[in-house]
Amino acid sequence: MAKIPGKSETIENAESAFEPSMATEQVRAVAEQGVELSKEAFSKLESNVETTQKAFESTLKVAKTTRNEVSLKTIAALRANAEAGFAHLEALVAVKSPSEFFELQAAFVNKQIDVSIEQARTLQAVMLRAGEDASKPIKDAFEKALKDLKAA
Description:
The structure is a single chain. By secondary structure, the protein is mainly alpha-helical. It has one domain (2-151). The protein has two helices and two strands; from the N terminus they run ββαα. The chain has helices spanning 20-93, 98-151; strands at 2-3, 10-11. The longest helix has 74 residues, at 20-93. The radius of gyration is 38 Å and the shape is rod-shaped. The two termini are 49 Å apart.
């Protein structure tokens, strides 16, 4: 027994309380727990990577579809504008007076402004829908990852 200076109590030698077999078991238990936690973390990471990959693939698919749709709508608008322009030129050739020319020209310009506004609205609607559709898989994956983090 050792006596602590200034104390009337005695304590037993600390070396006699140490058991190497218990320490080995405790270290092994901590190491096994660390391995299990690492496996769980890796599994979650792998799952999140797969989810993110699927989200990006879905986004790229939507982008490709949207690109095709925008291209087709743009070609249709260009065709309609060209046809309207040719029809207008044919009408201008048949004009008999300057006042008829200006009247015809003003009507054409007003109509083309209205058509252009409608074409722009159509393309805007396609692009807005595409943005929402393209961002949805990534948004869902992000929300799932956040939920998983909060649950952990």
